[in-house]
Design goal:
The complex is a heterodimer of chains A (188) and B (50).
Chain A (H helix, E strand, L loop, with lengths): L3 H12 L3 H20 L5 H20 L9 H19 L17 H24 L3 H10 L4 H8 L4 H26 L1
Chain B lengths: L1 H13 L5 H13 L1 H16 L1
Helix pairs in contact in B: 1-3, 2-3
The chains are: A mainly alpha (188), B mainly alpha (50).
Chain lengths: 188, 50
């Protein structure tokens, strides 16, 4: 039997993106998700997809400050996967209300709403970044995601000095914000 | 250049890279200038998504 402590260690590891911990969670859970999906009109690839998405949902949850998991990790992942798979079946018109093991799940609607919202926001940002074009996109990714400083970026991109790179980065950022918020506001 | 400097300052503020005195000064500035206040809110939201 797993203690609460080891569950806490797993969640902490997940929130820090620790590969070994992710592997453990995968080994503990994937088989049951796979058999659930295979038993309910799905394929191995579906199982991988759905499991991956549930891990992202759990990761997002583990990263919030107010994070509390009121059940075991297994139950949480199973509940998320079950809900995601039901939704997927509804989308492709194969909905069946005879999914098994309902009693083993908890309500995850609110978490999934947050997950879908984040996913949608992420797509908006991805779209905005890709319509930005180069070198703007790489310049902003270098600064905001890879956390490089202006001197490094200036050398990498071949600007004559870091002030010019900074001015360019600013112009790119203004364009990106405009693109992002235009879509974001429509989505709200 | 002023806009660039303002944005840089806002990012330092959001990322907690100001000392107490500068932070207090900037917070007062936010209170006095609604446009700056709005920029901080907007940029925080934006950085959360990038």
């Amino acid at each position: 039997m797993k203690t609460e402590l080891s569950e806490q260690i797993l969640l902490k590891g997940l929130s820090e993106n620790d590969g070994r911990i992710i592997e453990i969670i995968y080994k503990d859970n994937f088989a049951s998700i796979q058999s659930f999906i295979l038993n309910n009109n799905g394929s191995y690839d579906d199982a991988r997809d759905i499991f991956q998405e549930s891990m992202i949902a759990l990761y997002e949850k583990a990263q919030t400050d107010s994070f509390v998991l009121t059940c075991k990790i297994n139950t949480y992942i199973y509940s998320i996967c079950r809900r995601l798979w039901l939704k997927r079946l509804q989308q492709i018109g194969k909905y069946s209300n005879q999914l098994d093991n309902l009693e083993e799940t908890i309500s995850v609607e609110d978490d999934l709403d947050i997950h879908y919202k984040r996913d949608a926001d992420f797509k908006i940002m991805e779209h905005a970044l890709s319509s930005l074009g180069e070198p703007c996109r790489s310049l902003l990714e270098g600064f905001y995601i890879k956390k490089m400083d202006m001197q490094q970026l200036s050398e990498l991109f071949g600007y004559t000095n870091s002030d010019n790179a900074k001015t360019q980065k600013y112009k790119c950022l203004m364009r990106l914000k405009k693109l992002f918020f235009a879509q974001y506001n429509i989505g709200e | 250049m002023d806009d660039i400097l303002l944005l840089q300052t806002i990012e330092r503020y959001i990322h907690n890279k100001m000392d107490a005195e500068e932070r207090a000064f900037f917070e007062q500035h936010r209170k006095n200038v609604p446009e700056v206040d709005q920029l901080v809110v907007e940029h925080t939201m934006f950085l959360n998504h990038i």
